[in-house]
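quick one, 89 residues, struct below
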Amino acid sequence: MGLFVYALCALTSLACFVLLLRQHRRSYSPLVFQSSLAFLCFAASNVLLFVDFIVFPQIDLRLWRNLTTLAGVLVLLLAVTKDGERNGR
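---
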């Protein structure tokens, strides 16, 4: 059961990345581009989760998973704060 959940989480994050990147190509928006980068980090984190728990359970990849998640959160946080400054909020 965990196999499917981890795989679906990774595929969902990857689908969000692709859809956001497609939207960025249609209408240039820095916020959408940075959000797509954040979802790419989240997808990488989910792939690492899958590899950590399913493929190589004897290897602890917790540090790498947390670093990629942190990178995604930081990209998203910086994108939102920068967008708020641009709009005068």
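The mean pLDDT is 92.
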